[in-house]
Amino acid sequence: MDMSKREIAAVAARLVVEEGLEYGPAKRRAVREMGLPARTPLPNNEEVEAEVRDYIALFCAETQPKELHALRVLALEWMARMEVFRPHVGGAVWHGTATRLSDIYVQLFCDDSKSAEIALIDHHVDYEPRMVTGFHGEQVEALSVHAMSRLLGEEVGVHLLVYDFDDLRGALKPDAQGRVPRGDLAALRRLIEKDSV
Question: In Å, what is the CA distance from 62 to each residue of 27, 40, 65, 66?
Fold first, then answer.
């Protein structure tokens, strides 16, 4: 990685950890803050994630593991609640880089795309529907809720991304680093147990 990309990744990482920004907006804001031209080549997400891990190790080593645990517990609660829709958690909560400012992203793989929304309505859950970019770059519906984390003592954004059941086949292919990009209920339980040891 060339020096300007590394510097952009480092500034973006600070924005991700300290302000809870997602990688894309953090990279664009880093370019603006550094006074670089808008067309400056950006680091990829893996490069930003590496800088996020370094930043956490340097500045958040005392607090981040507890915050990550709290977010994983909350994700597990929501996944159990939506178990019929084959939930998988991804993003920073799955990869271990989440802090108290991170949102939780749970992918639901539904036979009927409206069934998850109906389940939330049936359980009197307030949610905000919106369209977001999915893991293949396509637009998918996200049902966003504010959920209270008892362990953090504050509300956390939980985004339930609605996919077709057929999308599950391609959802578990390893990423560029050979990691599984998301995990189901059993996999998240194992992570939480491992973290608690």
Answer: 26, 35, 7, 8
Nearest alpha-carbon partner for 99 in 149, 31, 28, 162:
149
**Going from the N-terminus, what domains does the chain have, and what CATH number goes with each?**
3-59 (no CATH), 64-196 (3.30.460.10)
Reference 101, options 143, 141, 52; nearest CA is 52
pTM for this entry: 0.93
For residue range 116-147, what is the model confidence (pLDDT) as tens digits? 999 999 999 999 999 988 887 889 999 999 99
Q: How far apart are CA 171 and CA 110, in angstroms?
A: 13
Three-state secondary structure of 134-175: CCCCCEEEEEEEEEEECCCCEEEEEEEEEEEHHHHHHHCCCC
| Mean pLDDT of all residues in 153-158 | 97
Distance CA(49)–CA(92), nearest Å, equals 9
